[in-house]
């Protein structure tokens, strides 16, 4: 059975974020990186979350950070720049009988030629 990617791209996991999570490739856009980070949360891949986080802002992460049951991702808007990019998204998770969403405008920067997650912004700059 074909496993669809958790990031809701509609593509098979093996041909989408798993290319990045398994280290076969590295995302070349901030949006692709953000999608792969959602898939890392959804599949419990801590090493990938650390690797894709800017070292200046990466918190101590452990298995307790992966208890949320992420259900789907909705990319609202993304703006790709040369060294900085911004992606606004809603990450949905199961809560009781329903679903709630984390709504975030995230900042990404190019670090050592790779896109990494810096952190949330309070608004579009
Ligand atoms: Zn994906």
Task: Output the keywords.
125 residues, alpha+beta, Nuclear Transport Factor 2, Chain: A, 4-stranded antiparallel sheet, 20% helix, 35% strand, globular, binds zinc ion
The share of residues in helices is 10-25%
Which percent band covers the strand fraction? Answer: 35-45%
User: What number of structural domains do the residues give?
Assistant: 1
Number of DSSP helical runs: 3
Name the strands of the widest sheet in spatial order: 1-2-3-4
Mean pLDDT: 96
- CATH level-two architecture: Roll
Main sheet makeup: 4 strands, antiparallel
User: From the alpha-carbon coordinates, what is the Rg to the nearest angstrom?
Assistant: 14 Å
Structural class: alpha+beta
Number of strands: 4
CATH class: Alpha Beta
Order of helices and strands: HHHEEEE
Description:
- With 125 residues, this protein is α+β, with helices and mostly antiparallel strands.
- It has one domain (13-121): Nuclear Transport Factor 2, Chain: A (Roll).
- Helix content is 20%, strand content 35%.
- The protein has helices at residues 17-21, 30-43, 46-51; strands spanning 70-79, 84-95, 98-111, 114-121.
- The longest helix has 14 residues, at 30-43.
- It is globular, with a radius of gyration of 14 Å.
- Bound molecules: zinc ion.
- Zinc ion binds at residues 5, 7, 9, 16-17, 35, 39.
- Residues 29-118 form the YchJ-like middle NTF2-like domain.
- It comes from Microbulbifer pacificus.
- This is YchJ family metal-binding protein.
């Amino acid at each position: 059975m074909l496993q669809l990617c958790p990031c809701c791209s509609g593509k098979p996991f093996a041909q989408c974020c798993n290319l990045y999570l398994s280290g076969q490739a590295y995302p070349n856009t901030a949006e692709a990186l953000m999608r792969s980070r959602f898939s890392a949360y959804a599949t419990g891949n801590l090493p990938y979350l650390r690797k894709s986080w800017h070292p200046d802002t990466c918190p101590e992460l452990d298995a307790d950070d992966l208890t949320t049951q992420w259900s789907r991702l909705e990319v609202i808007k993304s703006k790709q720049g040369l060294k900085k990019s911004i992606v606004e998204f809603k990450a949905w998770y199961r809560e009781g009988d329903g679903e709630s969403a984390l709504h975030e405008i995230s900042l990404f920067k190019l670090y050592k030629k790779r896109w990494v997650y810096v952190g949330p912004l309070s608004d579009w700059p």
